[in-house]
Write a structure and sequence with these properties.
The structure is a homodimer of 466-residue chains. By secondary structure, the first copy, chain A, is an alpha/beta fold. Chain A has 2 domains: 9-91 and 252-456, Aminopeptidase, CATH 3.40.630; 97-247, Glucose Oxidase, domain 1 (3-Layer(bba) Sandwich), CATH 3.50.30. Chain A contains 16 helices and 18 strands. Chain A has helices spanning 25-41, 44-54, 63-78, 137-141, 145-148, 166-171, 173-176, 178-184, 224-235, 288-306, 329-335, 339-343, 370-380, 399-403, 418-421, 434-453; strands spanning 21-22, 83-95, 99-105, 109-111, 113-115, 127-134, 152-155, 189-193, 219-222, 241-246, 249-263, 268-278, 314-321, 345-350, 358-364, 386-387, 408-413, 455-456. In chain A, the strands form 4 sheets. Chain A has an 8-stranded mixed beta sheet with strand order 4-3-10-6-7-8-9-5. In chain A, α1 (25-41) packs antiparallel against α16 (434-453). Chain A is elongated.
Chain lengths: 466, 466
């Protein structure tokens, strides 16, 4: 999940529809049964095991990306979902290339780093310059050109471990905006401490966003132990010089796809409940928690509802978005579907928060729908899930839908371990706990079931613009 | 610490001297005072911080190796130790080069692996072959040539987490002997699951030992998550093909050194109490726990005894051995000192067990000395250290001294976290806990002090041959 999409939306609690939503007792009973069975018999873990084993890394535009699309289509069909189609998406194709990072003075030794996603490479001969360090992006913003020009900027801010996204939100701006802020002051390159909480000697990548107002410079993240090392050298008071050579670059766009699967509804078939996740991953790991877990959750929900063998009232649409990690190309393509199709969406949910336990049901619903959210939360309480507020941000891929006023439910997960592996080579299947993942999936399943069956109208939130 | 040296020696408890060892009450009092002050005011952590920051990786024959020797000599002098000299050691100079490991069929994706220390490289075009898997080295030994010939052998045995060396001892034979056992059956290359307990996507290197009876083949260790991945692919029942390309090779020998520091004794100056550690490290990390911690411990002991400002009875000799990790060249060179100099050693201790808490005092002493070891253990009890048996193996570097019958004391440490980072890129300063390291050092300090001052003779164990 890229950071600039984490901002909590302005709270607008004004209902645009007077009619509320209700769940008949028989539906509540069925939802409870689905919940119970999915917690004990769920197979979401098998989907993420299959994806990480049979596909592995799948950054936008890569061979893995294409393999993932084929895998998803095949697997959805094998799960009994008949309507599966591909929406073609032109995706950027950035390649990491190689990286060499080392301190050349006063204490020569190698550093472990990874290019930030989207970074340009260095000149062929590399860049060697003195390091100037800043504790935060804000401190860099306040620096003078004299301090920075001709140097390699280092930003040391740590990602704070937190059960919510707050820890990520605080630290990630240095990654997204840091390169252009540094470049605007004349820096030759940017190094950041990884936006990650582990002590492994593994760097955490993630997208940067170059501003059009500053030249592009190469940017990379140091593994936490290497950031420690660099900081100890800087603390010696001596000038520290670093050499950086990267061959990262953008290749021509490739065609990927949003994978779209549907379970058509019955009397309210025109109304679409969307559950999304993203199929792409960064290249360093195998994308188990980001976002194999989300893919597994939404696939399993669809499979279990398909297995009921009867249409539910509304249409369930599963979307596995392309290229979330780099430019959100899949979400953008989806938002360009015909307006009348988009307007048929009545609710959107996105699973892109890893494999930690679900802890809270946040909504973004018109006032008349709040009682429905309360009902769902009450049903989920035995799983340790509380009712949150009405300020759900949605995920990055459904942001364009949120901007149109489409209501959202979010099952917030405990992300306190997420940043240990997020965007790093450590994002692998061993970071997924089977029991926990099946419980999260069960919570999604019950929620989606009730949304598909609810009496009444979801209504709309006021449009908020992108 | 290489594995083939972990074997517990045959217990020979026959005393070769009738006179025992005793510690006068004033010495016990001084030892207690030293212990107390070192736990609260110790600076061992600063030595390992300095070594990892200012030198970093220092495999035998590398520029880091030479920098480490210069660092050690400089630092020992700065700690007030006047007698510091270098014993030149011809060391092997193996270089890792690059590695590319990937599954090519049925599910193409990269694998993270590291060449085993001493491995040859592959042919320039790499090796591509079907993988044949064995759970243990023993299972491979029982395989037929038909099963193995022309294939890449994989051995999956896991290192078991254990507070003693047992977990390492069980698993490491596959690394040391595996390549030649596989080659003897016609294998083209060997892959092993890393001998390490962490789930990081980081491989654990370590020396192999080629037999003269089989052709050399390239050998590498997979990171644990990659071993999991390969095993999941193998479990699919399909043939799994792997491509491996490595440029590892031996370069000509280089001159390194054992760094030897002494605090001359007084009335028993001819008797040498040796405390050793090894200065070299593997190249992937910065050698904080293996063996920066040991280097720090023995340096700190020497510094604190030097700070007493008066000679103690026996001579303390600190030896920082060269090239422990690869061929034990430093230990071998040391064992070739003149016999009369070696015979002056009355006790040897080696610190090469990381930075975990000291938990047990093992001895290898003639019977008449056992009371002395009991006295030392009693003094150390407040630190949570128990008296072990009389079966100390010593460490790899003092093994030649042990073979000569020179008595040993070993402060066994809790190594339950050691294999998380051992020989991997994760062996960095963040794995060292300052308080724990100072306590281990204090235990060494009190033990060494009492050994230097004890009344009586240490005697000799029966010679055991190398």
């Amino acid at each position: 999940m890229p950071a600039h999409l984490l901002a909590v939306p302005l709270l607008v609690l004004v209902s645009l529809t007077a009619r509320g939503l209700e769940s008949p007792p028989t539906d509540l009973e069925e939802a409870r049964r689905l919940l119970e069975r999915a917690t004990t018999e769920g197979t979401a873990y098998d989907h993420v095991a299959s994806l990480t084993t049979e596909v592995g890394p799948r950054p936008a535009g890569s061979a893995g990306d294409k393999a993932a699309v084929a895998w998803a289509e095949r697997r959805l069909r094998s799960l009994g979902i008949k309507e599966v189609r591909l929406q073609p998406v032109q995706v950027p194709h950035w390649v990491r290339g190689t990286i060499e990072t080392r301190v050349t003075s006063p204490f020569p030794q190698p550093l472990v780093a990874a290019a930030l996603g989207g970074s340009i490479g260095t000149p062929e001969e590399g860049v060697e310059a003195e390091v100037v360090a800043f504790p935060t992006l804000e401190a860099l913003r306040e620096a003078s050109r004299d301090q920075v020009e001709g140097r390699i900027v280092y930003i040391g801010q740590r990602a704070r471990r937190d059960a919510t996204w707050a820890g990520y939100g605080e630290a990630v701006a240095k990654r997204v905006a840091g390169p252009s802020v540094a470049s605007g002051l004349g820096a030759r390159a940017l190094l950041i401490r990884s936006v990650g909480t582990s002590r492994s000697r593994l760097p955490h990548t993630g997208t940067l966003s170059y501003s059009v107002n500053a030249p592009k410079i190469p940017a990379a993240a140091l593994a936490n132990p290497d950031a420690d090392l660099l900081e100890r050298m800087l603390a010696s008071g001596q000038a520290v010089t670093v050499f950086l050579k990267m061959t990262s670059r953008d290749l021509p766009y490739e065609t990927s796809a949003n994978v779209i699967a549907e379970l058509p509804g019955s009397d309210l078939a025109e109304e679409i409940v969307l559950i999304g996740a993203h199929l792409d991953s960064w290249d360093l790991g195998t994308g188990a928690i980001d976002d194999g877990a989300g893919v597994a959750i939404v696939m399993e929900v669809a499979a279990r509802l398909a297995a009921l063998g009867r249409p539910l009232r509304r249409t369930l649409r599963v979307v596995l978005f392309a290229s979330e990690e780099y430019t959100l190309a899949g979400a953008t393509a989806y938002s360009r579907l015909p307006a009348d199709e988009l307007d048929r969406h009545v609710l959107a949910m996105e699973a892109d928060a890893g494999a930690g336990a679900a802890v809270r049901l946040q909504s973004l619903l018109p006032e008349a729908g709040l009682g429905f959210a309360d009902t769902v939360a009450e049903l989920l309480r035995p799983l340790g899930i509380e009712r949150g507020g009405n300020a759900a941000g949605g995920g990055p891929d459904i942001r364009p839908l949120v901007a149109r006023g489409i209501p959202v439910l979010t099952l917030e997960q405990d992300v306190s371990a997420y940043l240990d592996a997020h965007h790093s080579p450590d994002d692998n299947l061993d970071k997924v706990d089977r029991v926990t993942l099946e419980r999260v999936t069960a919570a999604y399943l019950a929620t989606v079931y009730l949304a598909l069956q609810a009496e009444g109208e979801f209504g709309r939130m006021p449009e908020r613009g992108p």
